[in-house]
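dude i think i finally got it to work??
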Amino acid sequence: MAEALVTGATGLLGSYVAERLLADGWTVRALVRDPARASWLATQGVALHTGDVLDAASLGAAAHGCDVIVHAAAAIFHAEGWAGYERSNVVGTDNVVEATRSSGARLVHVSSVAVYGPGSRYRPDGALTAEDAALQPIPRGANYARSKRESETRVPVREFFTLGAQGLDTRLRTVPVPGWLARGGATLVDRIAPLVGIDRSVTSARSSVDFISRNNPFTSERARSELGWSPSVSHEIGVPDAFAWWRRQG
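look at this
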């Protein structure tokens, strides 16, 4: 029987996710800070695991042996301002991604429409906002939206580096860096590089940061529709293989 861990299972969205998984025949675990306050989940058949997304050890223990982790936990309001949102929503997501890697589970990351910014909500032409809509600037002080957008970048980036590390047969060590700081540093590197004789003609530091922190901007839809092509190798296999090849070339 498939088994899932749900973070944020005591919340509005997470509780419905847990309920639906149970109805579909899943074995469900919930990561909860206070089992007494979450006892109503236990009465429905959810296994309670005491812990917190900010406590990597308890999170890892709860995730061990799971097939899927549904990360629905998030701080919508936080008295500590940006520092609190970053800790709960960004660092917490980092820990969930690591627990996903160590447990071998698949990750379902619950985000928010807030990531699109207010400029995408009510357009003059009445167009609706789809998943591929361009991200608009987030107003200063919109800490929840900012933290959810930042947490989104953690999922594909961390997975890419984790798979790359597997191919290189090395241990992954990461240091969380805000996107604005990474892009600012990369811009500085691009400006200094020519002055010290570093060739940046193939790619720039800024474009490298964009590559690892943003979604793939290219589509293979034409090859799919006209040639009937579909990828025969998943990224979980292809990325480590590519890095392993690069390592063998010295």
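The two ends are 44 Å apart (CA to CA).
im so relieved honestly
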